[in-house]
Write a structure and sequence with these properties.
The complex is a heterodimer of chains A (about 450) and B (about 180). Chain A has about 450 residues and is mainly beta. In chain A, about 10% of the residues lie in helices and about 50% in strands. Chain A has an 18-stranded antiparallel beta sheet that branches. Classes of the chains: A mainly beta (about 450), B mainly beta (about 180).
């Protein structure tokens, strides 16, 4: 059991998909600015196809480094407290230990200890109290109730894997894989009240969690176009076109991609899971409530079209861009089956009923979008911001960097997917082709809604 | 039982942080109205006698590996509803994994005897820590409780009546290990 817990946890730490609300970056510069990227890397080039035609800044100022290497002080600290040779007996991973705290373990998964935690996410250790009577059940979770989510919680992402292709001029032909999953859980209000507000369980009442899970994957041949469609004519001293700024990045860039999606497989399940308590509560057996509708593809034959579009305008120190992905991306699955999976109280078993077979179903890929802007002032100040949504809530970042010779001071603010305000600050020192950066930021990536504070350090190679 | 299983699952998903799990089990609510909440007694002159009632106590499952810190009757009361005679009655609580076991196990809590005299009702307060020897029983899903009323009669008139339980809440504090 202990070995299994350790193994599973470490595997999840390494392989876990990012939590829906997790904003993990290995760049201390970015984290010190509240998550905003003043460069043209990262989300801008990923979600705005116009940026594929824009040269990535490098070499100086706020230019993007060629390589960013995180300095994992958090891992050092983690393994100092949890020696790798003693993990199997470590109370953090050992359910048999009196000090074992599952919340702490989940926090570790949701917020991997890459960087140094200045303020760890809360892992409530208070007592929980239950009052049980024939017709009474009251739960007082104390401080643990902060773990009960008010909103839908879950995991999800819409990503692209691989991008194999070739291009000629502004055109690019490629084949990409796509993966989309979205798993959401919502506590019904009665259950939330019982767990969070110490409201007594009522007889003859239902308490459940609504689950809505979708997963689909496939590949998409893509034709892309990205180019500067307009740039200001710069005259030389003689009045001829061209001049010292003729090769500057100024101009308007357009980008677009057309996708034809081939869906390989998909599944979706929706329904409540919970129980209906009897009357009296502990004298009559409750009824298990489990009633889900599940759609699955019989064959890998999803089809659909969609598009990415983007525009970027760069004018001297100012640039702005807007891009959106997977517009109109709806996949039609011509051969699917629909099943109802229920708990059968008579047989005390799960029953599966085929509602429809060989029917058509449709799924959508979520629209992802980004809008970004940056202004580089001549005084060494750069400010920027972005609004970003990858299909599971909008994230807003605003940040600034002030350079003083080799030194940089940074700060930023963000609104995360939980609509919670987060803050970042940091600094850096650049020496030639190398830079050492430090960023401190707050985040709410763990089970609790409370903020944690982490300090990131990274080395950049320009 | 499923209700308690459900409660146990809720404990697992909602109260899994490190700390102590505390259960206030209103045992009386399970006994009230069933007849098991009363113990009729009839003590012949110049003698003593006992009478008892049994009750199964269900607890949330999954705490088999837990360590019980304490078990205490926090709220407990009974009425001695005496009809005739003068004597003294006390209560003892026995716990075991099955009903038969309660007949051979030492008592976990003894309530001092209370004097009754003639027709009338005498209230009795029941509270106290249960013997550590039976703590481990409270990590089980179920256990049995036997309440024994022991009476003595020094007079020439039979002492008759009944002891009626009016409240009984057992508080179990344990270091939960639910995985």
């Amino acid at each position: 059991m202990r070995t299994a817990v350790v193994a599973v946890t470490l595997a999840v730490l390494v392989l876990a998909p990012r939590a829906a609300h997790a904003q993990i970056s290995f760049d201390a510069r970015r984290l010190g600015m509240g998550g905003v990227s003043l460069g043209r890397d990262g989300n801008a080039s990923r979600y705005n196809p116009a940026y594929r035609a824009v040269k990535n800044r490098s070499g100086g100022g706020t230019g993007a480094p060629k390589v960013t290497i995180p300095v994992p002080l958090g891992l050092y600290d983690f393994f100092r407290h949890h020696p790798i040779g003693k993990l199997t007996s470590d109370p953090t991973f050992n359910p048999d230990s009196a000090a074992f705290n599952p919340v702490e373990l989940l926090n570790l998964i949701l917020s991997p200890p890459i960087f140094l935690d200045l303020r760890k996410p809360p892992a409530p250790t208070n007592n929980v109290e239950f009052t049980i009577g024939k017709n009474q059940l009251i739960m007082n979770l104390g401080a643990t109730s902060v773990l009960i989510p008010d909103q839908t919680f879950g995991l999800g992402t819409s990503g692209r894997v691989l991008d194999l292709g070739t291009g000629v001029g502004p055109f690019h032909i490629s084949v990409m894989g796509f993966v989309h999953y979205d798993i959401g859980f919502t506590l019904d209000s009665a259950l939330r009240s019982v767990l969070k507000d110490t409201v007594p369980v009522r007889p003859d009442s239902s308490y459940f969690i609504i689950t809505d899970a979708l997963a689909q994957t496939g590949f998409t041949p893509t034709v892309s176009y990205a180019a500067r469609v307009w740039h200001p004519t710069v005259l030389s001293d003689s009045g001829a076109p061209g001049g010292p700024n003729a090769n500057a990045d100024d101009g308007v860039y357009l980008g677009a991609s057309a996708h034809y999606y081939f869906g390989a497989t998909y599944a979706r399940g929706v329904g409540p899971a919970g129980f209906t308590v009897g009357n009296p509560i502990f004298a009559v057996a409750p009824t298990v409530l489990f009633d889900g509708i599940v759609h699955t593809a019989n064959r890998p034959n999803g089809h659909g079209v969609g598009a990415d579009v983007g525009i970027a305008w760069i004018s001297g120190p100012f640039e702005v861009g807007v891009g959106a992905n997977d517009l109109g991306a709806q996949l039609t699955w011509s051969d699917t089956k629909v099943q109802r999976i229920q708990y059968d109280p008579n047989g005390d078993s799960i029953s599966t009923t085929l509602l429809a077979n060989h029917v058509q179903s449709t799924t959508k890929l979520p629209i992802s979008y980004i809008a970004n802007a940056a202004l580089r002032m001549g005084t060494g100040t750069t400010v920027g911001g972005d609004v970003f949504n990858a299909g599971r809530g909008t994230v807003i970042h605003l940040g600034a960097e002030q350079r003083y010779g080799p030194f940089a001071v940074r700060g930023g603010v963000a609104r995360d997917q939980r609509k919670k305000l987060q803050f970042g600050f940091g600094g850096g020192l650049r020496m030639g082709a190398f830079g050492l950066d430090l960023g401190v930021w707050t985040h709410s990536n763990t089970l609790a809604d409370s903020r944690a504070m982490t300090m990131a350090t990274s080395i950049s190679v320009y | 039982m499923k209700a308690l299983t459900t409660a146990g699952l809720l404990v697992l998903v909602a109260g899994c942080g490190r700390g102590k799990a505390i259960f206030n089990v209103d045992v009386y609510s399970f006994m009230a109205g069933s007849g098991r909440d009363t113990i009729p007694y009839a003590i012949p002159p110049l003698s003593s006698a006992t009478a008892s009632t049994f009750q199964m106590v269900q607890l949330p499952p999954g705490f088999g590996s837990s360590v019980v810190d304490s078990v205490r009757i926090t709220i407990g009361s009974a009425n001695l509803i005496n009809n005739t005679g003068t004597g003294a009655l006390g209560f003892s609580f026995f716990f075991a994994t099955d009903s038969a076991g309660t007949l051979s196990t030492p008592s976990a809590l003894d309530v001092p005897a209370t004097t009754v005299n003639g027709s009338g009702t005498v209230p009795v307060t029941i509270s106290g820590d249960l013997s550590p020897a039976i703590h481990s029983l409270f990590t089980n899903d179920t256990l049995w409780m036997r309440i024994v009323a022991t009476g003595t009669n020094a007079g020439a008139t039979p002492v008759t009546g009944k002891g009626a339980l009016t409240a009984l809440v057992i508080r179990v504090v344990l270091q939960d290990k639910i995985l």
